[in-house]
Design brief:
By secondary structure, the protein is an alpha+beta fold. The protein contains four helices and five strands, in the order βααβββαβα. Strands 1-2-3-4-5 form a five-stranded mixed beta sheet, with helices on both faces. The mean pLDDT is 84.
């Protein structure tokens, strides 16, 4: 059956060792420190998302574009029940005036599409990288 949205609790929290241990393996080593700095300085929010017997961590930030369009950027999600969490998060931020959510991931496109595609997310960009 899965996790129901009303069984999910979102709590904004300070950076901590438990979150760092879960997030670090998902973030490129060169930018790990940026996640903590952005949370510590208020540019991003670290969320402890929990249910009866599980905890997941996510980092989000807000971008506002010309014309007032507000977008939530889901930087990283580490733990269980990601699909249910993103669905619940979508409902919460919609009520707050957020107009779009951007989910950035290093996972292959098929894996990312399986995670959030069923929630209505569409691919809007492709990133190319040159290592020098």
């Amino acid at each position: 059956m899965g996790v129901q949205k009303d069984q999910i609790t979102f709590t904004a929290t300070a950076w901590n060792d438990e979150a760092a241990a879960m997030i670090a393996p998902l973030v490129h080593p060169l930018i790990k420190h940026e996640f903590r700095r952005d949370v510590d300085q208020g540019r991003a929010v670290l969320w402890r998302v929990s249910g009866d017997d599980w905890v997941t961590w996510l980092v989000t930030r807000i971008e506002q574009f010309e014309g007032g369009h507000i977008e939530l950027v889901l930087e990283v999600i580490a733990g269980k029940n990601a699909r249910a969490i993103v669905a619940a998060l979508t409902e919460k931020v919609k009520k707050m005036g957020v107009k779009s959510i951007r989910f950035e991931t290093h996972h292959p496109e098929k894996t990312a599409a399986r995670l959030v595609g069923c929630l209505g997310f569409e691919r809007v960009a492709t990133t190319f990288r040159l290592n020098i």
